[in-house]
Amino acid sequence: MIYQFLEDNTGKVIAESIHGELTSVLNFRYPEFDIPAQARALYLKNLSRQIPDVFGKNIQLIGKKDSEINLSKSHIRAVSPIHLKYLETQVLLQVQVSRLL
Q1: Which H, E and C letters describe the chain, residue by residue?
Q2: Residue 24 confidence (pLDDT)
Q3: For residues 5 and 53, what is the distance between their CA atoms, to the nearest angstrom?
Q4: Which residues of 33-61 are buried (b: 16+ CB within 10 A; e: fewer)?
């Protein structure tokens, strides 16, 4: 999915690639609160983000120093538990919609 932030901080799906019986979300608009300001700021620093395995286990990264590791420019990073719940809900909704058709 390619998501575009709009001037009013809402967002719109402007491209997608779907497989199987999933329902298209092309041109769907989402409210500002759907992607928190903190997440939007990360997307402005790093325009691409990948979630290769939504159900993958998070692992702890340990650096050479005790300071925090800056992952703001990382393409693959842990996903917020709130976002994971959102994705889970979307999948459940997709399954329910495809069964209704």
Answers
A1: CEEEECCCCCEEEEECCCCCCCCCCCCCEECHHHCCHHHHHHHHHCCCCECCCCCCCCCCCCCCCCCCCCCCCCCECCCCHHHHHHHHHHHHHHHHHHHHC
A2: 86
A3: 24
A4: eebeeeeeebeeeeeeeeeeeeeeeeeee
- Closest alpha carbon to 32 in 57, 53, 6, 14: 6
In angstroms, what CA-CA distances link 61 with 5, 11, 83? 30, 32, 21
Stretches where the chain sits below pLDDT 50 are 94-101
The full length of the chain comes to 101
Residue 33 has a pLDDT of 84
